[in-house]
Design goal:
This protein is an alpha+beta fold and about 160 residues long. Helix content is about 30%, strand content about 30%.
Length: about 160
């Protein structure tokens, strides 16, 4: 005679209860992780485009006068444009985000730079506009996820982290 091996109802219910407890604990952590990674992603995107603008200004010294980074519709949370001004007029070199599909919720990315006074690099990579900063503050973040990106007159970029 063969024995049938199977799970009992009690074993099945205990397993389901353990899985339920693990999901209850784990799911909120995943949403926090997504929010925190958004802060890092915005910082990385902005740093990449600031670096591109400065490098473009330095490497195209004979054809451009300045390279600027301006917010789209005067709101950095919408996104920004890297614009060169030179022999071929004003040319948008990179656009990150748009007014129709913003990068972040309004107020998540703020800056002392505006459309009227954008971040401008000259042909030597120096900032010709006033030195300023960008602040990335994602709602519902945890830990040290507020990012402040400061740009000195020499074009040096400094990143500081602070608690949410």
């Amino acid at each position: 005679m063969y024995k049938i091996r199977a799970f009992t109802l009690i074993e099945l219910l205990v397993t389901i209860a353990i899985i339920g407890i693990l999901l209850t604990v784990g799911v909120p952590s995943l949403s926090t992780m997504n929010v925190n990674s958004a802060a890092d992603r915005y910082r990385d995107d902005l740093l990449r485009d600031i670096s591109f603008a400065r490098d473009f200004a330095v490497n195209n010294v004979t054809t451009i006068d300045t390279v600027s980074i301006t917010p789209i519709n005067n709101d950095w949370s919408n996104g920004w444009q890297v614009i060169s001004d030179g022999d071929d007029g004003l040319v948008i070199r990179i656009q990150t985000g748009s007014a129709t599909t913003p990068l972040a919720a309004t107020g998540t990315i703020t800056s002392t730079y505006t459309s009227g006074t954008p971040l401008i690099f000259d042909d030597q990579g120096r900032v010709t506009s006033a030195a300023g900063n960008f602040t990335i503050n994602v709602p519902n973040c945890t830990g040290n996820r507020v990012r402040t990106i400061s740009i000195t007159f020499m074009g040096q970029v400094l990143v500081q982290e602070a608690a949410c």
